[in-house]
Structures are given as structure tokens and as C-alpha cells.
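Hi P.,

Sorry for the delay on this. The queue was packed all week, but I finally got your sequence through. Input first:
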Amino acid sequence: MSGKTNARLEAMAAAARRQRVLQAWMPWLVILFTVVAWEAVVKAFGIVPFILPAPTDIWASAVRWWQPLLDDSLQTLFTTLVGFALAVVGGVVLGVLIGSSALIYRGLYPLLIAFNSIPKVAVVPLLVVWFGIGMWPAIITAFLISFFPIVVNVATGIATVEPELRDVLRALGARPVDIVRKVGLPRAMPYFFASLKIAITVAFVGSIIAESVAPNAGIGRLMMVASSRFDVPLVFAGLITTGIMGIMLYWIAEFIERRTTGWAMRSMEGQNFTPGG
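Then the structure:
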């Protein structure tokens, strides 16, 4: 009987290992399939690069213009990271205040919702008037577009602390600041990292919008110049470069999340890896 049980456990462990390997390779397989299918469709239907360039045309354009592509990518990455960092600091502070005080919530939340509803592309011309053409409109736009998700998620994480738990902690002599610091903030961490993975990707959108409206440097300016020359492969090279930077920053946020809030992900990991021990 024990032999059958051991064989069953070994089979489940092997299946779990195969599942982990498949999960690790699946993104690369999907990307490879997409690139091959894209190339095949373009070649089969004879689509000209002006309409839809093939991946080989995009690669050739990226190699040809690698220096301006690299310089503008670094500029966009810098403005995005600065705006994102400001959004993290401001979003955490305001999220803590909103989540821990019903009065502040009722006072500020309508204003935040109204401001978040304004298209950021309409704000960029005002930023250019106030700050001039340069990196500051891109930084501020990245900040504005990534600020709201962080505020909402941090506030939600703190506000979801059970009232019964708050009452017990108050009965034990805990101050409101202690409740927020020792219970609210740990509770908000999974929400916070979920918002980071959203905010870091939309921050690129803010930077590129500003760089497209008020071109000085960055991927947005590069794509505008390429569009004016009808260099569609270079436009696609800029888009793909932006996507790669977004994926890299997303992975960094996910890595930090796993290192700092592994306790919140333990149940999901247990479901995935329990057969393997």
C-alpha cells in the first residue's frame, strides 16, 4: 500500500515539476509564436512595411537607429522612474490618510475621482506653459497617471481592517497610529504591490504622451519624428522598446513583491507546488 502511495506522490511531484517548467517557458513560447506568425502573415499577404512592417524589418530599423533609440529610451525610462517614484511617495502618504480617516476620505475622494477622469493629454499643454518644453512635463504626466491607482489600493488595504480588530486593539491600549502602522500597513502591502504593477506600466503612457505632445527627447519624440518621415518600422521599434522596458519594471516589482509579501501569496503557491513537496 505504501509503495502505491509513494508512486502516486512521485507522479504528482513529476507533474508539478513539468507544470513549473511549462509555466516558465510559456511566455517565451507565446512571444516566439507571435513573432513567427506575424512574419509569416506579412510575407504571405505581401503587406508593405508602410502599412505593417515585419519583425525582420523592425529589427533592421532598430539596428540602424540603435543610438538614438537607446538615448531616447534612457530618457523615457528616467522620466518615467522619477514620476513613478513621486507617485509612490505621494500615493502612499495620501492613501494612508484616506484609508485611516473617514473624514479625509469623504473630503478628498470626490476630488481625486474628478481629477483622474480628466484626460492627461489635455493637461500636457498646460504643463508645457507652466514648466516649458523638457523633461518636467513628462515627469509630471507620469506622476499624475500613476498616482491614482496607488492611492486607491493603499487606502483600500488600510480601510479593510476589521472593525472588531480595531476595537480589540483600542481596548488593549493601541493608538490609531499604532493600528495603522502595525496592522493597516501590513494589510495594505498586497494591495500596494498590486497597484505598483499597474502604475509602473501606465507611467510609461504618461511619459510618452508628454513626449509626443511637447517633443524634446524620449521615445515619444522619436516616434513622432519617425511618423513624420513615414518610417513605420522605427515607430514599431519604439513601441516594442517601450513594451520591453515596461515588462522589465513589472518583473522587478513582482520580484520585490514576492520577497516582501510572500506570506500573502503562500496559499496560491501552496496550490501550485504542494504535490512537489
